Amino acid sequence: MIKLTKLFTNSFIDVEEHQALKHDLAIAHQQLHSKVGLGADYTGWIDLPLTSNYRNLTQIQEKAHEIREHADVLIVVGIGGSYLGSKAVISALTPTFFRKPGSPQIVYAGNHLDGEYLEEMFESYKYHSVYVNVISKSGTTIEPAIAFRLIRSWMDERYGKNASKRIIATTDATHGALRELAEDEGYDTFIVPSDVGGRYSVLTPVGLLPIAVAGIDIIKLLNGAKEAKQQFDLADVNQNAAYQYAAFRTLSYRKGKTIELLATYHPKLSGISEWWKQLYGESEGKDGKGLFPAAVQYTTDLHSLGQYVQEGRKLMIETVLNVKSQHSYLSVPKDEYDLDGLNYLSGKTLHEINQKAMQATTLAHEDGGVPTAMIEIDRLDARHIGALIYFFQKACAVSGYLLGVNPFDQPGVESYKRNMFALLGKPGFELEQEEIEEQLNQYRMVNAIT
Ligand code: PA5
Predict the structure, then answer these.
(1) What is the pTM of this model?
(2) Going by C-beta distance under 8 Å and a sequence separation of 6 or more, which residues neighbour residue 115?
(3) What is the CATH architecture assignment of 45-216?
């Protein structure tokens, strides 16, 4: 279902180096599966494809059915792992320019602090039937909390005491401000398992409810993840493409590469790239270590970043995510006058041309000193996307262990929050406030002098 089809073609990494890593991989595998490695309390995602029980899934499907029946729009409020997973799956598996009959529009809020966005959202949907799914595991993250306060009051104005029937909260079973609020207001709730962190939570109600509302079969998605689990839980790296991918990344990093580009040739995969960036960036970037995850969408970006990839600093590896099967048979028509000189392509499908562009680019980048791996999925459907999610999560966790970091925490995210709370005068941050304002003043002075 998922293959790593092309690896180390430019002999950047030799066989001995790969052999030597096998020992480290075996340890990482053992630590992860025996739940004794760093962050072991947050490895519940490994079992999700098996433990998502019928009752939970039925509840999600029933709620999704209700929303599909009554809503024109579902606003999903959340940030980071609380929205990127559902957005990735929905953009991969639903039409780009229209909605299927019966499918509400899914829009996202609370993933930044821009007021104009919310004002435009309120204006755009003032005559639509709206439901809201507010998602926060901690229940205290400032971006979704602020957005939800505004959305809640907008919903109250529109629906009065019925507003609470249109709001669903996905949060921790017992802790956090959102849990308390949901109970006070009588919202329906879904639980984020305590042993699953945000960026590993797409196969929990965090991702599954919005995905089901979009009309995607969540059972097929989970079955795909289940099949992937059988494949990517194998200890033997020779049989496990997720571990081969982790090995490729790790050895490239050890040999001085600092950036990994995820390259796609299909616009519907752009959401997967965004989700992947968060998964790898937050999991690995700590203790001064880690490949920086960046994404490119080809062939679009061959006309912007392509020049750098080909001839710029040799910092990168490239991982191509390819969908093998033809998803459209649109072909280039023959033209009587051939003024654009394209008749040599007539009869060829855009898929065929895109695949040739991919082969040509991969070869060129390899020649330009950018080692490439290619992850291939057979087709773009719920089963394959479910498998891809598990593949990337598994490879990420093992990569983190090979790197020697805890792939399940994100302590660095606290630094900006501390500064922001201090600058905004949050009670309890008075001391930091003075310190930070002093630092900002010094910065202003330095800037004024230079
Ligand atoms: O991966 C993570 O844990 C984070 O990116 C969180 O998902 C993000 O910070 C949002 O957190 P919360 O769901 O607690 O609001």
Answers:
(1) 0.95
(2) none
(3) 3-Layer(aba) Sandwich (3.40)
